[in-house]
Every structure is written in structure tokens, then in C-alpha cells.
Amino acid sequence: MKFGLFYLPTCLPAVRDVQTHYRGVIEQVEFADQIGIDYAWIVEHHFVRHGGLFPSNYAFLSYLAARTKRIRLGTGATVLPLNDPVRVAEQAATLDQLSQGRFDFGVGRGFIRDEFEAFGVDMKDSRERVEEGVELVKQAWTNPTIEFKSKFRPPMSGLPLLPPVYQKPHPPIWVACLMSPESFEWTAEQGHNLLYVAYHVDHPIAVERIGWYRDALKKSGRRIEDHEICCVYHAHFLDNDDDAKLQSLVHKPMSEYAAAGIEAASKPPDPTAYKGYERREAGQRDFGFNTYYPGRVVMGGPKQTIERIKVLRDVGITQIGLLVDFGSLSQDEIMRSLRVFADKVLPQVRDL
């Protein structure tokens, strides 16, 4: 079982300024690098308090590459419809070189209407832009020159990508999927790894959606064991099992996180291209402690946490993305929680 820190933080200027928040994330990732956590994932969002502190995740990850030695660094994810795939390929290759091959390429469609409108991109094109964009990036990384005719940008011919990627044939590719069966199935058919953020649904629904991916791998003639599934959960760890104390620590930050997510998606995405996404908002509004704990999070004392991780392992998850920085949870609490994970949890679950 692998573990990562996953960052989709809540911007709360009244609680902490951006510099303080950035320095807190850097401290967390440096500690994760030291204790043997495998990944640090940084999202891309724009203009919204829900993850909008990282509109330029490649820049932030490049800084982390210089501050760490072994942890892998991933975009979780690049919102590919909002970006020129050629520029993405260049930025990613630069990060791959700077990190000496510690980069993982995560992509997603995005779903926040304000982002699409601000960048002048039609949400109806999002799936096609992802599929074409991933193909363009892969070609740019693996061919001597780019030879590509695109529906969405000028064609390219005879131009090499500089710098080339460090990893051969190319960095691992992950696709962030949320609700659409087509996304899970396409990800499997293409042989990419799966990124899935599951906090807004109960465990049986998460298992069903992971099953879409696993079933599609088999139908495509691919071996499940050759592919990775990273499932993202809010995480907080205590020295001992104590549900009342846990609730007192996390419920306000969790509620703030959910409120920022609802605010970011206040304009619903295109209903044709994003069928069923209204259910995501409903899942965030019903956010009582007993709604998300224990089945939508990885939280509690060591015994509770280890049992929860075993449950997730048994449904085929190969990496748990720990969303440790949420709402107004203080840096002191986040670091205390990570130390508990390092001392009392990680040694017990590393070889699961």
C-alpha cells in the first residue's frame, strides 16, 4: 500500500494568509519526504477558495522538487481543457527533469463553470479536450518531433519538445474521475492509472465506481495488478481512538471545506456533458460528522485507521491520498496528526 499527501486546500484569508498557508504545506511535504510517504499531489483550480491557492501547480511542485529528495510529485490534477497541451508537456517535462524522474502526470476534465467561462472554453468539449490532450502530450514526450493535427489548437509538425522527459518512455499518467462511468472506462481502456476523490459518497458507491475501472481494465485485456488506483480521503490521526475528540477537532474544518466546494460549484456544470453532477453537491450539503465518519474519511486512532486502511486495500485501492489540510485546521494539528501517522500507523500498514 502506498500513501500520498493530496492538496486541495481551503483558502480562508481570515484564518491564515497565503504565505503562511504555503509554508505550512511545504513543511508537511518535507516531513512526508522524511518519513517515507510516497507522493505529494497538488491540484489545479482557479479563482475559487476550493483549491484556488494552486492555479500554477507546476510552479509549486518545482519548488517542492528542490526541497525534497525521494517523494514523488504529482499534478492531482492538471485541468487539461483549460491548458494548451503543448505547454503542459513542456512544463511537465521541465518538472520531470528538475525532480530527476519523480514526476507523475495527473489530468482531469474540471467541472467548475467559472473556470471554463474565464478561459473561454466550452464545457461541452471538456471530455474531448482531455482525450486529445493526453494523446498530444504522450506523443510530444515519446516522439523525436511533434506531428499532430488538433481540433482545438494549430497543428504542429517537425518541432521537438524541449526539454525531453527524464523518465522513459514517459512519466506515469493518472486520470482524475469523479462521477461519469465513461471517464472511468476510458481511463482503463487507455491503460492509465486512476485518481478518485471519494469524500462526497458513501463507501459502497466508491467501491462501485472503482469497480467500473477494474472491470474496464479486464475488458480491455489489461491486468489489474499492472495499474494503480489512488483514492483520496480527508485524513486526521489521533494517538488513541476517541471519536468525541476527533469530532471536536475536524468537524468545523470539514464543514468549511464542504462550504467552499459548494461555493465553487454554485454555477452547475453543463448538464449534457456532466450528467449526474448535481448529486455531488447534494453529498456535500449533508455534511454532519456521522455522515462522513468513518466511511468517507481515513480518521481516528491508530487501531481505527489501520482497520480502515485494510478495508480500502481489500477493494483494490493501491494508494490512499491523505487530504490532511482542510478548512481552518491548524498547522500544529496537521503536523501532530502526521507524526501520529508516522509513528503508529505507517509502520503497520506499509506492507499491506
> If you compute it from the alpha carbons, what radius of gyration comes out, rounded to the nearest whole angstrom?
19 Å
The average pLDDT score comes to: 95
Lateral strand order in the biggest sheet: 1-2-3-5-8-9-10-12
> What is the helix content?
40-55%
User: By helix and strand content, what is the structural category?
Assistant: alpha/beta
Q: What is the straight-line distance between the termini?
A: 6 Å
Q: What is the total tally of β strands?
A: 12
Low-pLDDT runs = none
Query: SSE string, helix = H, strand = E?
Result: EHEHEEHEHHEEEHEHEHHHEHEH
Give the overall silhouette.
Answer: globular
Please indicate the percent range of residues in DSSP E strands (runs of 2 or more): 15-25%
The main pleated sheet reads as: 8 strands, parallel, barrel
How large is the count of helical segments?
12
Description:
- With 352 residues, this protein is of the alpha/beta class.
- 45% of the residues lie in helices and 16% in strands.
- The strands form two sheets. The protein has an eight-stranded parallel beta barrel, surrounded by seven helices. The protein has a two-stranded antiparallel sheet with strand order 6-7.
Please outline the helices and strands:
Layout: E1 2-7, H1 18-35, E2 39-42, H2 57-67, E3 72-75, E4 78-79, H3 85-98, E5 103-108, H4 113-118, H5 126-142, E6 146-148, E7 156-159, E8 173-177, H6 181-189, E9 193-197, H7 203-219, E10 229-237, H8 243-264, H9 278-285, H10 289-292, E11 297-300, H11 302-314, E12 319-323, H12 331-349
Parallel strand pairs: 1-2, 1-12, 2-3, 3-5, 4-5, 5-8, 8-9, 9-10, 10-11, 10-12
Antiparallel strand pairs: 6-7
